[in-house]
Amino acid sequence: MVVTDPAKHAERWGLVPDVYVRDHFPEEDPVLARAITAVSRGQWQLAADAMGASWGDWELRARVTESLAREGARSDGWLNAWRAERPDRDLAVLDAAAWVQVAKEILGDSQEQEHLDGFHRVLRRAERAALAATELAPQDPTPWWTLVQVAQGLSFDQARFAEIWHELVSRAPDHRAAHEVALEYWAGQSADVMLDFAANAGPALVLRAAFLLEDEDPIIWRTPLVADAMEQLLAADELSNDDRGYLIVALYDHNRFTAAIEQFKLLGSRADGAPWHRFEDAKGTFLEYRWNTCRKAAL
């Protein structure tokens, strides 16, 4: 008998019940969580501590910077207090990233010229702030990562982007967050170059590239490049939740529904990552994919 109730599908396959699936979770890093709580109260010292502790671990620094930058975009009183009392390289790096977040807030999902003009204007301010941060923190790839985001948002030409990219990878060749933003930049430039870039960056980036290209190239998931990347990720010992999400989409397109269910089991209740957050209703999209995967696996 074909099961048509989504809740029954979750039960049958041992998946987390729909009601427990969430698209937002509190920060799990205790240092960063305390810093976020403090800045929400206008206190900057724990944010400064978190930024300082991230020095040298550039992946962690990118995550800390991005999380605190989102808070700074919402309310900048604590950033101003930090600036008044103890301006330093960490503040400069964070300030530049916060301007990028402000630009994103201005644009949102709008294509109105007024919003586009504001988006571009604030990104140019972010560019100036990031360049200033590179002077204060010359070893740090983080302001160059911010500049990669600026380059993507302002559609810098390829020569100018290459200069920024060279500076970044000379400091952190495997900077994952930067590679993800660079993929978005190349998506707006050239599909072929983007795929070449992704292939050199690793299988996880290949699946991200396929997701970005699927509207214009529906058979991208069935190409040898993508199929090979899918197999590599299936064999990997550990995957991030984001990579697992893109792997699910690839497996689904290859009609490997049972394997996709296993990935859903490993994701558990986490609908807060990619590619689900790219949709207006992240949780709804996650559950729809999961239900359709279970339904097709049962046929």
Can you describe what's shown?
The chain is an all-alpha fold. It has 16 helices and no strands. The chain is globular, with a radius of gyration of 21 Å.
Summarize the structure.
Helix content is 70%, strand content 0%. The chain is mainly alpha-helical.
What topology does this entry show?
Blueprint: H1 6-12, H2 30-40, H3 45-53, H4 58-74, H5 77-85, H6 89-107, H7 113-136, H8 142-154, H9 158-171, H10 176-187, H11 191-201, H12 203-213, H13 224-234, H14 241-253, H15 257-267, H16 282-298
Mean pLDDT, rounded to whole units? 94
Portion in strands: under 5%
The sequence of SSEs as H and E is: HHHHHHHHHHHHHHHH
Q: Which sheet architecture does the biggest sheet show?
A: none
Give the fraction of residues assigned to helices: 55-70%
Report how far the terminal alpha carbons are from each other. 9 Å
Shape: globular
Task: Flag low-confidence runs.
Answer: none
Query: What's the helix count?
Result: 16
Question: Which keywords apply here?
Answer:
mainly alpha, 299 residues, 16 helices
